[in-house]
Amino acid sequence: MSRVCELTGKKAMVGNNVSHAMNKTKRKFNANLIKKRFYIPEEDRWITLKVSTAALKNINKNGISAVLKEARAKGFLNK
């Protein structure tokens, strides 16, 4: 599976490692992803999502139903 958040679409970014001598080599900044199970009471089922920690904070703040509804509207989630 790819390293992409299923709710926000966050994915790896590309940047540089910079040494003390200012030599630059390419590197990847991966998203901080967690595989987590959520219970959806409206559908009476569990779903497993790969979400970023920022999306997890949004779920804790707004609730899973609201965040899923917003993600479906943006086209990130097809479940």
UniProtKB/TrEMBL annotation:
<dbReference type="InterPro" id="IPR034704">
    <property type="entry name" value="Ribosomal_bL28/bL31-like_sf"/>
</dbReference>
<comment type="similarity">
    <text>Belongs to the bacterial ribosomal protein bL28 family.</text>
</comment>
<dbReference type="GO" id="GO:1990904">
    <property type="term" value="C:ribonucleoprotein complex"/>
</dbReference>
<dbReference type="GO" id="GO:0003735">
    <property type="term" value="F:structural constituent of ribosome"/>
</dbReference>
<protein>
    <recommendedName>
        <fullName>Large ribosomal subunit protein bL28</fullName>
    </recommendedName>
</protein>
<dbReference type="GO" id="GO:0006412">
    <property type="term" value="P:translation"/>
</dbReference>
<dbReference type="InterPro" id="IPR026569">
    <property type="entry name" value="Ribosomal_bL28"/>
</dbReference>
<dbReference type="GO" id="GO:0005840">
    <property type="term" value="C:ribosome"/>
</dbReference>
<dbReference type="InterPro" id="IPR001383">
    <property type="entry name" value="Ribosomal_bL28_bact-type"/>
</dbReference>
<dbReference type="Pfam" id="PF00830">
    <property type="entry name" value="Ribosomal_L28"/>
</dbReference>
<dbReference type="InterPro" id="IPR037147">
    <property type="entry name" value="Ribosomal_bL28_sf"/>
</dbReference>
<keyword id="KW-0687">Ribonucleoprotein</keyword>
<keyword id="KW-0689">Ribosomal protein</keyword>
